Amino acid sequence: MRLWHAPARALPVTVRPVGGETIVSYARRLSAANDLPPTTILRTIGQLTGNGSGKHLLICDARLNEQAAARLETCTGIPRPRLARALPALRGQLHPGQSLPPDRPALRFHRVHPRPACRQCELAASGPSGPSVLLLPGWAPLACRRHRRWLGPDHEPGQYDLSAARDILTAHRRLARLLARSGDRAWAYGEFLTAWNMAQDWTRCEPRLMPVFSQRWRDRAAALGITTTGKQPPRVVTFPEAVTLAAILTDLDWRRNVALDWDDRPYYQRIAESIGERSYPRWLLANDPVRWWIRYHRARFEQLRHRPWGKPPPENRHFK
């Protein structure tokens, strides 16, 4: 008899989920709080399918069918809406094409490579000896505003104290608003990542070409105690400019104009002014990130740019 065959019951001890936490992380913390083996709660809420059931599940998240989600609600005693606010997997937006058996509670695992939560938040949620809290990239915040800690993307999980770099916290709030009003969070976050890659590329140019930007990211690095000699800096130092650039890249009016207009000089100038520069250095090198983005975007809509005279272009959302 499997654990998920037995009727679901409320656990003696429950713990609250952390915003953006994976199902695997939350279930593991529930097991630890009740002195159970690490995968007991996972096996209790449903049949495990996907990538197995060993320790390597810590790099995974799980999608639950309706029966498994109901069993998790019963085990924790926490209402489903409250669980769903913290656990993205319960919002039905993770790998919707993957099928789950309709006749029994089941979980399907997929790799997501989660990142650690804020250490102070983790201590409050699990205690000093509890399991780590693992957050889903793209859903969990990049910074903890409560404790002023930088968490970073999954491949750069260094936690920096942001007390001396308040502009990063301000940019983090701006990013949250940008994603919330975009209407398509996944697309907007992808454009933000593109903008972040572009901002990182700017750190390679000579300071005289982008003096304002170069001084800003170096001042942030110094405030955070980051040594940048001889290597590309961590992404935290270009985060504010990445958010500023993301606001432009997700502007559908701007994207439409870039795609259809023949003169691209105004768009370089707008990007330069947004980050405080007088003009954009139209690098003669092949690695200018803005030039490559504009060329790629314009190539996607080349046929529209050559449309017959008088024929109106499609709606702005077409230019995503």
Highlighted features:
single chain; mainly alpha; three-stranded mixed beta sheet
Query: What overall geometry do the principal axes of the alpha carbons give?
Result: globular
Distance between the termini: 51 Å
| Poorly predicted tracts of residues | none
Chain-averaged pLDDT: 86
Query: What is the number of E strands?
Result: 8
Q: How do the SSEs run, as a string of H and E? A: HHEEHHEEHEEEEHHHHHHHH
Instruction: Walk across the major sheet and give the strand order.
Output: 1-3-2
What is the alpha-carbon Rg in Å? 23 Å
Helix content: 40-55%
Determine the structural class based on helices, strands and strand pairing: mainly alpha
